[in-house]
Here is the input.
Amino acid sequence: MIGKTMNKWTLLVCCLLLLAGCIGRKSPEVTYYSLLTMEQLGEVNAISSHPEVRLGIGPVTIPDSLKRSQVATRQHGNQYEFDEFNRWAGVLERDLAMVLGDNLGALLDVKKVVTFPWLNYFTPTYRVVIDIQRFDGSLGGDAVLDVRWAVADAEGKEFLAGGKTTLSQPLQGPGYAALVEAESLLVAELSKKVAGEIDSLVKNQ
Here is the structure.
């Protein structure tokens, strides 16, 4: 009888110790990221000044596999990993549109930049449409942006410029902060390419 009581007390103490260990152990904190604009990267050098131009950015589309809050890293070939503790602070498509709009506004000195969908009172001079095929990277490796893009008229019916662009950027560090910075640099490079085409369109009108 005493032996059974001792076994029960021993089991109870072990359970309490395990519970205390679980309560005292903290889970890793989640880190939230947003893409960096060219201004935040210190990369802005305006290529021209077109304050009379109005830009409409969007729609911006991304693969279904990237429509989640976790930051994606590519492992091997078509294998992805989504880290629970490294996440986007907002919706990635909207973040891309906002950063692209900020970049183009700075590069072209455009004051009126609106992201899709815009209200009826706004009619853009040019509309920038972005369809991202790939936007990821490997930690300690390269970030990659594969995108189809177009500059169109206000209604998005007439193609004026665009094409398919693939860019890569080596990470300057081992972690997710370095990955997001590299991805931001890729968006900056795309912005420069789109800005150059818009500048040519304005000058050739």
